[in-house]
Request: fold
Amino acid sequence: MNEHPLVHVVDDDGAIRDSLVLLLEASGHAARAHADAASFLAALDPARPGCVVADVRMPGMSGLDLQRHLSSLRIDLPVIIITGHADVAMAVEALKAGASDFIEKPFDEDVLLSSVGRALDKGARAYRERRQMEEITARADSLTPREREVMMLVVQGMPNKAVAVELDISARTVEIHRARVMEKMGAASLSDLVRMALRLEEGESV
Reply:
């Protein structure tokens, strides 16, 4: 898995694509050009962090359509829309749909780079959260069904004796399961375990 962020430039205008990639690379960013949304999606590694700079008007899927498509797939790559003056209304619509930013042509290089920086920061946070969620889910999957039952009752605030009554097992057995749960989940405290359980519940409800 490549954890180095990548800026995707999606624009059907070859000159704009090339100039954006040169600008981004000169500023220290890894960048890749795509002539349209379809070729971008075909080459995309959804697990790699980064962001997308896309023209609002392109043959086939527009920048707005692309942003919506990524959102529907739950791919957390922030999208910056590049727009001409006549397309500002579309860009505003993209923002309402979750786009990171929009920039009007002709764009100022510093404005664009600042926007990319903010988008990459946002993407990095989403990437870290996704990796943390994957780790928590993997740990939870390592629990036995009984350990999972004990965990869910413990994080509800039930003392060991009450858990023992609820599951019709001894309090000593609950203590053993609880210790294994804490170890397998990598929880340093009960509050850690509660936070993990809440994130698991949130993930399952999405």
